[in-house]
Design a protein that fits this description.
By secondary structure, this protein is of the alpha+beta class. Helix content is 45%, strand content 15%. The chain has 11 helices and 9 strands. The strands form 4 sheets. Strands 5-6-7 form a 3-stranded antiparallel beta sheet. A hairpin with a 2-residue loop joins β5 and β6. The longest helix has 22 residues. It is extended and about 70 Å long. The chain starts with a helix and ends with a helix. 7% of the residues are buried.
Length: 296
């Protein structure tokens, strides 16, 4: 109860003390919430949920709406027919009786495809026979596919991890294998080559990604967060360069935890941490890296 009361007081502070400075004068904002405030999206989501929950539950209970999903201001809704959709959004846009909040959600004309977040949901080849929808990656027209260039100072492992991650993302976002291959051939791989990556480098980075493993990529293992240790960042020092911190922690981690009660509570899963050495490369190292890339 104390935590709840504290949250309410903090929210009230954020909503009633919106001070704006303009032309060396201070103004108190009396309507809305300041853009950029870290709690703005959370408060807006809570407010909209309180307004919409009864309408959504009513339409779902009557089977007028089959599915309703919303992320901030993006809504995905499956209705029985166009009339139901129009009825739903007509009521939705007038939910706030006081009109202190203006709800103006637009809806697209009925088509066989719909864009939601980073996906295009459409009636693919299996819709007629299996009654299943297909999904594929959605990109806005001005999307430039600008990834980390091969000539950057990032470690090779980071570049390969980036490419592997993009291949996995494509696998997860394409239910149809042919559409996945088409995206790789026409969009992803040409963009990576434009940034200096060779076909051999791309193949090596993505060799473990196969469409047959798509279900595995989509399914998060149980207790996945407990299967790996925390990330431990160590600052660069001459001493650290002479020792293998990862090996020492792997061998003596349980012994170390046993003597440090506070650390044991922090690392509850008792898994040895992943050691990340942070260092700032000097000019000599940068020029050496650039020289190697030039020779390659």
């Amino acid at each position: 109860e104390k935590t709840f009361a504290l949250i309410i007081r903090l929210a009230d502070l954020v909503l009633t003390h919106l001070v704006v400075k303009f032309d060396n004068r201070f103004f108190l904002q009396t309507s809305g919430i300041t853009m950029g405030t870290s709690s703005a999206v959370l408060i807006a989501n809570i407010t909209l949920h309180q307004l919409e929950k009864h309408l959504v539950c009513e339409f779902l209970a009557e089977r007028k709406v089959i599915l309703f999903k919303r992320l901030v201001d993006d809504i995905l809704i499956f209705c029985n027919n166009v009339q139901t959709r129009n009825e739903f959004f007509t009521i939705y846009n007038t939910l706030d009786v006081d009109r202190s909040i203006q709800l103006e959600f637009d809806h697209d004309a009925p088509t066989s495809t719909v864009d939601f977040l980073d996906l295009t949901i459409h009636k693919g080849t299996r819709f007629e026979t299996q009654h299943k929808l297909d999904i594929k990656l959605f990109h806005k027209p001005f999307h430039k596919f600008n990834y980390t260039p091969h000539a950057s100072f990032q470690p090779i492992a980071c570049k390969k991890g980036m490419i592997k991650g993009e291949f996995i993302r494509s696998e997860k976002a394409h239910s149809n294998e042919s559409e996945h291959k088409e995206f790789l051939k026409n969009k992803l791989i040409p963009s990576l080559k434009r940034l200096g990556y060779t076909h051999a480098f791309i193949d090596d980075a993505s060799k473990e990604v196969h469409h047959k493993d798509r279900l595995q990529f989509l399914t998060q293992p149980k207790n996945a967060s407990n299967n790996i240790g925390a990330l431990l960042k160590l600052r660069h020092s001459p001493t650290l360069m002479k020792i293998n911190a990862s090996k020492i922690l792997q061998e003596r981690w349980e012994q170390f935890l046993g003597s440090k009660q506070e650390i044991m509570q922090t690392f509850a899963n008792k898994k040895p941490p992943i050691v990340c050495k942070l260092s700032n490369p000097n000019n000599k190292a940068i020029f050496k890296k650039l020289h190697k890339l030039k020779d390659a």
